[in-house]
Amino acid sequence: MATKRKTTKRSPPRRPAREQPARPEQPAHEQPERERPARPEPRPDALAVRPSFDPDHRVVAVTGAASFLGTELLKRLEADRRYLKVVAIDIRKPEPPGKAIFHKVDLTLPTADAELAQILKREQVDTLVHLAFLSHPTHNSVWAHELEAIGTLHVFDACAACKLHKVVLWSLTSLYGASPLNPNYLTEEVRQNGMPGSRFFNDKLEAERLALRFRKENPASVVTIVRTAAILGRRVSNYVSGYLSRPVVPVMMGYDPLVQLLHEDDAVAAFKLVVDADFNDQYNVAGDGVLPLSTALALLGRLPLPIPYSLAYPAAKVMWMTQVIAAAPVFLDFLRYLCVADTTKIRREMGFTPRHDIRAILADFAGLAPPHAAATGGPR
Fold first, then answer.
1. Cα gap 368→359, rounded to integer Å
2. Whole-model pTM above 0.85?
């Protein structure tokens, strides 16, 4: 039986597609206009762009506005007609409330830099004075680091974002450190060593390093660092005023270091001066003259209590760890060694002369009639 051969049905070959002739390109003015997405309307709270710096219409912001320095500086800026607006920044309002515009900002929060940048742009700030630092040591070292070191980082990040004309930083001459190797007078060029093991000093030292880095990365901005000696007066409260307020004052047996102070009013005057004019450098500020610690205590009517250092240090260490005393044992070095700053630079470049010498400062602190605040032998 023959088998039928299975055949497959072939499809006809496809014809090649004809190439479509290219359409001539239409001129730009004849092309149909494409629909563009509508732009969102600007928000009413959109940030204003800071205008160029106007020396006759200044706007200054002060962090740490509720502190003594902040409150007193705000008063002087508000009384000066050259300042169009003054902005107070802190976690609480300054007392008494003045004309300054208050903004509550916690510099320890992670969003503080963005929040502060919004305020600086909205208020059109051209100058910021950073005074948000602790005047007393604290056992809460983590919070202190967040406020002074990380908080200062937030401040400079906000200043860089807003391209401020000037930033002023408060620092301390005690950051040079108390050491037997110190020269008689410490100039601004001397390296700051801080105090090993002290968060109170080292966080402030880190703030200075951030200021120097900001100056290097933002050469168009003026950065002024004001290093004050221990500020003393009847209205200011810090670790030095607390030490000198005791009727019986512990001292280190066999040591009598020189003491250098700055009157509270002269400190405010120095900050007002660096806000008024531009000084792109760091400056030591202190009152005229120095005195041995024993003489200073005698003028205040205090009774010194000599303690051997070999006993004082371990006792202070235990009392600090148990939170019995408010000062770390490293402060004892300032009761042994020299730490006196040279103020020639601020006198020469700014023309700043303090109104109170060291005897007038001590007399005012003791509540006595201050003597004539005359200079005591030279520009230092």
1. 11
2. no
